[in-house]
Design a protein that fits this description.
By secondary structure, this protein is mainly beta. The chain contains four helices and ten strands. The two termini are about 30 Å apart.
Length: about 270
C-alpha cells in the first residue's frame, strides 16, 4: 500500500479518536466502569480495507519447475512469444482500491489486561496487477469479448475471514483505553476468478499473521473501538498448472502472497 494512503488512514484514526474523546468526556464520570470485567461479551464491526500482493519472480520464466517437464516445451515457447520474445517481465501492484469488511465479535476475558478475540467476518476487495508487457490480444479471445485489459489484471476477492488472536490492553484513562493485538487468520476466497484465470491461477485459501493497534472508547451505552490492522499473508497463493484457461502471465511468479490493510470500527 502506498505511504500516502497509509497517512490518510492514520489521520482518519486520529480524527475518530479525538472526536470520540470529545464526546466521551462531555460527562464528568467514567462510562461503563465494569465493562471489562465481563467474562465474555459480543459485538459487531464494520471496516474499510485495501489489498495488494508481495511478489517474487523467477529470473527467467524457463526457471519455473512446470517447464522442466519435456511435454511443456511447446508451452514454454508460446509463453515467451506472448512475453514479446522475452524470457522475463516486470510485474507490480497497480493503484489500491477500497474494499469493505463486516463481521461479528466474540471476546473472552483472559486476565486483567488480556482478551482472547474471535472475529469471524467477510471482506470484499480487489487487487490489481500491472505488467510491463501488455496482455496479448489472443488472451482476450479465451473469454467473452468487450473486456478491457484492466479487468484481466484485476483479482477480486470475497473472503470468509476467521481471525483469532489476543489483545493486550493498556491502562484506562477516563473513557479511553489503548491496546495492541496479535493473532492469526485463515481466509477462504469465494470469488470466481474466471476472467483473471486467463492470466494467473490462484489458490483460494491462505493463512495470515496479523498485528493491530486500537483505541477503546467507552460511551454511555456501548464501547466503540477504532483499530488499524495489518494482515501478512503466509501462504504462497500462486498455483502453477496447465488447466484451461492457461495462465501464461502467471508462470513468471515464484511466490505471490497477499497483504490486507484494514481500518475497523467495533461496536460492543
Amino acid at each position: 500500500m502506498r505511504i500516502r494512503n497509509l497517512k490518510y488512514i492514520l489521520f482518519f484514526i486520529l480524527l475518530v479518536a479525538v472526536s470520540v474523546r470529545t464526546f466521551g468526556q462531555l460527562k464528568n464520570f467514567e462510562n461503563l466502569t465494569h465493562f471489562d470485567d465481563h467474562k465474555i461479551h459480543f459485538g459487531f464491526y464494520l471496516g474499510l480495507n485495501t489489498m495488494d500482493y508481495r511478489m517474487t519472480n523467477y529470473n527467467s520464466v524457463s526457471d519455473n519447475p512446470i517447464f522442466k517437464n519435456p511435454l511443456n516445451q511447446a508451452l514454454l515457447t508460446q509463453t515467451i512469444n506472448l512475453y514479446g520474445g522475452k524470457t522475463s517481465l516486470g510485474v507490480k501492484n497497480d493503484k489500491p482500491m477500497p474494499g469493505f469488511t463486516v463481521g461479528g465479535v466474540i471476546n473472552v476475558r483472559v486476565g486483567r489486561d488480556f482478551d482472547l478475540r474471535f472475529t469471524p467476518g467477510m471482506s470484499l476487495g480487489n487487487k490489481m496487477l500491472k505488467y510491463t508487457t501488455p496482455i496479448d490480444p489472443t488472451i482476450y479471445s479465451q473469454n467473452s469479448s468487450g473486456i478491457d485489459q484492466s479487468t484481466y489484471l484485476s483479482t477480486p476477492s470475497a473472503y470468509i475471514d476467521l481471525p483469532l488472536g489476543f489483545r493486550y490492553k493498556g491502562f484506562r484513562h477516563h473513557n479511553l483505553r489503548p491496546y495492541i493485538y496479535s493473532g492469526v487468520a485463515y481466509r477462504i476466497d469465494l470469488e470466481n476468478k474466471r476472467i483473471s484465470e486467463s492470466v494467473v491461477h490462484l489458490n483460494k485459501t491462505g493463512s495470515y499473521a496479523e498485528v493491530a493497534l486500537g483505541l477503546d472508547s467507552y460511551l454511555e451505552y456501548f464501547r466503540f473501538t477504532a483499530e488499524f490492522r495489518f494482515s501478512y499473508g503466509l501462504t504462497n497463493l500462486i498455483r502453477h498448472d496447465t488447466t484451461m484457461p492457461i495462465p501464461y502471465y502467471g508462470f513468471i511468479f515464484k511466490e505471490l502472497n497477499s497483504n490486507i490493510f484494514t481500518l475497523i470500527f467495533y461496536f460492543e
